[in-house]
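Support request from a user on the community tier.

User writes: "When I paste my structure tokens into the form, the page sometimes reloads and wipes my input. The last time it worked, I copied everything first. Here is what I submitted, just in case something in the input itself triggers the reload:"
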């Protein structure tokens, strides 16, 4: 028997992408949108163009994880699909991904994410370790990849090649939260994360219940970075804060400090490289130096380290 899927979408000032996301979700799926106080007309657009969508509107931006928890609390499906508002399902992709969960040992599944030009996008990772943070921050990870050594954090290419050989779901450690199907009532997002690494934390806890798998037969486009495109420095800071919080929760305060030092060292390295490149690329270097200076001097674990209490939602659920 087919399992009913609830598609959960968190919205924050991405009206055109949200419209396309919802247009790509087939009508037999339940859709829940939680809006984090968008100011671009997203709420009105959903009410006007997608009256079947269950809509909840927060009075403020409570973050990605908390808003997804709110959506999960009112969803009624046998499976939940966390889907970014800038992710677009290919026809049949959601049903295909649900098939990967027919095995009762599977607790979560992710599909193939593509850039809009069709290139494979990173969506599968290994366990997050300090060694992998070191490789990321020193630029050794891409160097090792060119040498054929796949020892870094991202594992998408290797996993995808295995899927191509077997044409069957491949067990993985972590799936990006931009497109993550899970069984309900097992684990929820930790509200201490505002944005970034909440999916790393969730997948680690889900792995204690069963298997996570990747199935490239389910394909989605993803406009990566929509949430941080307006201010890249804030996006990088939140990503660093998320990693540092992850290590504090799962490895202790010493690991958090080491991660923080690696993140700051990586920011300093990039600042110096872009400063040296100024004679060749003055405008680009000036922008990059400004970004990395802000990252280097960012306060410690600001938004990502606090517990977020959801603001009371405004009534906008149109499903009744």
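"...and here is what came back when it finally went through:"
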């Amino acid at each position: 028997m087919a399992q009913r899927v609830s598609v959960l979408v968190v919205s924050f000032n991405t009206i055109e992408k949200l419209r396309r996301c919802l247009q790509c979700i087939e009508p037999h799926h339940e859709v829940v949108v939680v809006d984090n106080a968008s100011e671009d007309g997203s709420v009105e657009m959903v009410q006007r163009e997608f009256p079947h969508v269950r809509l909840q509107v927060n009075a403020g931006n409570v973050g990605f994880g908390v808003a997804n928890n709110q959506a999960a609390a009112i969803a009624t499906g046998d499976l939940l699909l966390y889907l970014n508002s800038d992710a677009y399902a290919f026809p049949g992709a959601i049903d295909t991904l649900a098939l990967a969960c027919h095995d009762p040992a599977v607790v979560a599944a992710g599909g193939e994410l593509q850039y809009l030009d069709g290139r494979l996008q990173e969506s599968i990772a290994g366990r997050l370790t300090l060694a992998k943070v070191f490789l990321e921050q020193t630029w050794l990870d891409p160097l090792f990849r060119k040498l054929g050594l796949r020892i870094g954090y991202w594992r998408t290419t290797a996993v995808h090649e295995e899927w191509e050989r077997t044409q069957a779901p491949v067990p993985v450690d972590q799936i990006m939260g931009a497109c993550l199907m899970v069984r309900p009532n097992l684990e929820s997002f930790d509200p201490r994360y505002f944005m970034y690494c909440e999916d790393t934390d969730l997948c680690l806890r889900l792995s204690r219940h069963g298997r996570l798998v990747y199935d490239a037969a389910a394909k989605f486009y993803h406009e990566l970075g929509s949430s941080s495109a307006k201010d890249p420095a804030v996006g990088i800071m939140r990503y660093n804060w998320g990693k540092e919080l992850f290590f504090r929760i799962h490895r202790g305060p010493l690991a958090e400090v080491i991660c923080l030092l690696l993140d700051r060292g990586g920011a300093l390295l990039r600042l110096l490289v872009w400063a040296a490149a100024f004679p060749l690329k003055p405008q680009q270097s000036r922008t990059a130096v400004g970004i990395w200076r802000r990252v280097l001097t960012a306060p410690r674990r600001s938004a990502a380290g606090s517990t977020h209490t959801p603001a009371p939602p405004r009534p906008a659920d149109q499903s009744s």
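Agent notes: The reload is a front-end session timeout and is unrelated to the input. Confidence is low (pLDDT under 50) at residues 303-320. The longest strand covers residues 211-222. Escalated to web team.
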